[in-house]
Amino acid sequence: MRRQILMGAILACLAGCQGPEDDDDDQTTSQTADPTQTPQDGDGDGYLADGDCNDGDPAIHPDAVETCGDGLDADCDGLTGDGRIQYRDLDGDGWGGPDLVDQCEAMAGYVDQAGDCDDANESAYPGAPEWCDGVDNDCDGIAQDDYQQTYYLDEDRDRYGTTDRPEVDCMPRLDDTSSPYYHWAVLDGDCNDGEVTIHPDADEVCGNGRDEDCSGADQPCQFMVGP
Questions:
Q1: Less packed terminus of the chain by CB within 10 Å, N or C?
Q2: What pLDDT was estimated at residue 90?
């Protein structure tokens, strides 16, 4: 009887004293990635969804070639079509006015640069030379820039005017025959403004009774006298 009691106590002790199982012993914890949290490449174009603006189309990704006019943002730059902005150039000076179009190909009568302040005047555009014509030629907002120059009446157009007929004004258009300043020069000293071959820079011909170089007198000819 004692033996049975002792054996029962031993079995009870073994059952109650057994420690908890070590679930981590020789076991490796595996974690399964959440596909909703990890960027995926749904269209197989080599770009993950967080950098691909359309992960359902393999032809759309940051390195795709943009096709103008298809209405798609193929290269994910935020623009659809990447059209060519062109400006209408009415006067043909190479600068366009405010009217623009967005086309894939170059259009006749349109240019790529805007800024023409007077698209009906071919002499007015950004960077054009400023003339004394009442027009803002260089599109800087000022007509006839403050440039003062003394000019002399030059009737024979030999680039020398008469000293007694000066006029101070802005830069005239000396090469324009329609300009009222066509017969004006920046150099003076012409002693005969009715003869194009007579001016301070002309070659003097000796002994002809004419003062071609405006030195004040005809140059006498020099002759070599032999021994």
A1: C
A2: 96
Instruction: Specify the pairing of strand 110-111 against strand 149-153.
Output: unpaired
Q: What angle do CA 196, 197, 200 make, to 5 degrees?
A: 100
Instruction: State residue 52's pLDDT score.
Output: 87
Q: Mapping DSSP to helix (H, G, I), strand (E, B) and coil, where does residue 110 land?
A: strand
Longest dimension (CA), the chain: 179
Q: Edge-to-edge strand order for the sheet containing 149-153? A: 166-169, 149-153, 184-185
Global pTM value = 0.40
Which two tokens mark 98?
Answer: 């405010």
25 burial type by CB count under 10 A (0-12 exposed, 13-18 middle, 19+ buried): exposed
Domain spans in the chain, listed from the N-terminal domain onward: 41-82, 83-143, 147-221
Distance between first and last Cα of the chain:
179
- At 33, the amino acid letter reads A
Q: How far apart are CA 154 and CA 192, in angstroms?
A: 10
Q: What is the pLDDT of residues 164-193, one digit of tens each?
A: 878 877 666 566 676 666 788 889 999 999
Question: CA torsion 202→206→209→215, rounded to 10°?
Answer: 50
Q: 44-67, pLDDT tens digit by residue?
A: 888 988 888 898 899 889 988 888
Amino acid at 147: Y
Amino acid (one-letter) located at 121: N
